[in-house]
Amino acid sequence: MSAFCSELWPEEPTPEAYQDCRECGLYKHGTRMVWGEGNPDAPIMVILDNPGAREDREGNPMVCGTRQTLQQAASEVGLKMDDLYVTFILKRRPVRAYEKDQTRQTCMIHLEQQIHHKKPKLILCLGNVAVQSFFHDSEAEVKNLRGTWHDVNGFQTTVAYHPLAVRRRPNLWNMFLQDMAFVAEELKSTNTK
Predict the structure, then answer these.
(1) How far apart are the first and last CA of the chain?
(2) Which of 27, 51, 106, 147 has the maximum number of C-beta atoms within 10 A of its C-beta?
(3) Domains of the chain listed by start with CATH number
């Protein structure tokens, strides 16, 4: 990977109706809700498993490795922040054990409302957790679904490996770039129709 300067993308405020949501139980972890970041009106919605850290232990803003990898790949294929809106299955970062399946099912209600409100042109799910939750298929895997478009609840959706997996396994970088380029090409194609 070449040198790249990442940045903390602007955070979309959580809608007032959901700020005090306690349905999934993650509020007990003491992390705040992160609704999404980037351009709220972007044509591409990127779905990750959870928001990860946006601040260090002292509360200072930081760009985590997941965000660095995603931003670098997007930049290398010609996508800009204005093209992307990043959101999450879980709107709070879990910091200890939790009932994963039940929590993800509960949180999917918010994500589905968010998607139907925003109506993105394209959806990119990153990582098996996001793919399985969004596709409502516990057997779905990125390695079998990447490189093609799928209709999920009426939305044109594709998948790629999680940026953190790409950081941990650099051999996935070229596939991640291919998948990001696949999305960039489709965006270009839909913009010319």
Answers:
(1) 34
(2) 51
(3) 11-191 (3.40.470.10)
